[in-house]
Amino acid sequence: MLKKSKEEIINFIKSLPENRKIFINLFGLWIEVSKEEAIKFIEESYKENNK
Length: 51
Known about the structure:
Helix content: 40-55%
Number of helices: 2
Radius of gyration: 11 Å
Oligomer: single chain
Shape: globular
């Protein structure tokens, strides 16, 4: 499986159309989030995983 960098993922999210739905899987529950929330989640996840 290819690993993507944080920047690649954030750039992909930013490139999505405004009305595109984004979902995050959190403890087995799929949650719809905004682009800004998704980017914040990705940034926080990378911080936690790189401690």
